[in-house]
Amino acid sequence: MNLGIFIVALPLVMLAGSTGWLRYRFEARGGWVGQHGDLLEAVARIVFFLLAAGVGILIFRRLRDRLNHETVDPEPPVQPDVAWLQSLQSSAASRITEDDRKAIAMFVELVVDPARRRSRLTETIDLDERAVVQQVSISFSLPDADDGGRMLYVPVLQPLKGELVDNFHLRSARGESLTTMSYEESVRLASAGLRLLVEMSAGQQPTPEHRMLEEVERAAELALLQIVATRGPMNSQIVDRRMDVILEKIKFRDDESRQRVRKYVAALSSSYPIVAVIPTADLSSGRLLLKYERTFIPSSLVRGWGGLLRLGLGLKPDQVAVPVELALTADSYHLRVNAPSNKYVLKQFLQCRHCRTLATRRWRGRRPHGQQDEHDKKGLCAHETGPTAEVDHHFRVRRRRGQSFVHVYMRGYAQESPKMRDLQLIARFKEVPPGARGRAVVTAVATTLLIAVAGNLITSPQGAQVGGLPALMLALPAVAAGWFGMASDNNALVGGSMLARLSLIVSGAVSVVAVILYLGSPPPALPAPQGSTLEHLTFVGITDWRWVVLCVISALNLTYVSYRFTLKLVHYNDLLKREDLGAGEFAWR
Fold it and tell me: In the predicted model, is pLDDT for residue 524 greater than 60?
């Protein structure tokens, strides 16, 4: 199909670019048509050009759609086999032994309420090429391991079902690699946790260490186990409705026991835990430190022609958006975003990703109501402003002082109910001076000076004696602009100045035009007669209007890029002179 469109477009392009093919036929007819043959041919060529452009746009869109086309095969959640569920139920009952009982109970607690045992979580984001490297360090505060079995089952990450985790590597505090459970092992552990929860939660009296479930409880357990073992994410509303029916069949001691079972099943219905197997001997006074690393590919926030222009100029995005949802899983949370060493933080915001409002300490969590209002345009915000006395959380952002990283500290957000799941950090970085703008200023200075010198030579009789040396000199800024433009940060995810790149393009283009103009200019003419208007049309000694235009364009480019470079240099110097905030002071920008 595209070949046929190309065959149609080819003669249109030839007709639009050819001259004389229609004019002479009009002239042979005489009359008004013959007198306006040039005009009619120009109109015809414009029409053919527009038709060719339309066909070209059609081909472009077809090829773009073909490149962007993806075959999406939506796969509904795969329900597990009943026989397999029954085997899971049987293995769960036999697994709850004296050695494993406390370890399974700790696994359940870490799934239901991870912040209770996660005392500190540190997340570090390294902006490396197209992918982002995430390094997370989690400090657990666990009870004594006496009589707790030989192993601990610690869920370190709970990605959504169906989500791929790239380059995942789990390490201990000593840097040794740790093993994780496979999918089937994790499901069997989750089924054992569900059996333990049902045993401990059901019944009117305190339960013994191990008891047999009644037939109704076993049926309810099997239905809950089906939700946990389903492959693929399930709709949360469907899960809630199913659990409302299932949990009615179990007689819980209190509402707290019911809620623990509900939270456990709801958490495992949408995500699967990556479980680390830790020997109890590795615990030091009830403390455990685990580290994991993964990579993920971020999506671009830049839309429209601005993002397309940056991409066309070979520039990387200058800002990143990092969700802070891990703050909801630990009592204390630190986030550090590391940019390359030749960048500094220009702006930083902790905000809602839906309404773009800056976060304050008075925010508290709420459930998104899905209805638009004055402040929540999409009805998706999970925050609202409440009285200060009811808020028991805190956050702080490192003040901008010319550093290449952003540091955010958050505490108490895991205790919010409901949780604020819409917070994100926006960080924008710029190059440390002189950087690309400094190179652009040097190139603009060289271009302006050389064009001024060549313009004076070309308009003076002495210019004929220098030969082709000015042409070689004029070509140097174009080479420099191309070199400086290519010598940018090609390996960094963020970086690059659009102003500097545009300035280099202007300098290079002006230099190329100056070389062509110099080589195509006739020898310098005699001075204009006294009283002529041309004698007074000079700019830095240049009388040729073409060279005046080139010199003015280059001078304007030099003036603007120098102004912006000076402003950036002074601003960066002001940042370096700042002092850190004292106790009680607060900065989030």
Answer: no
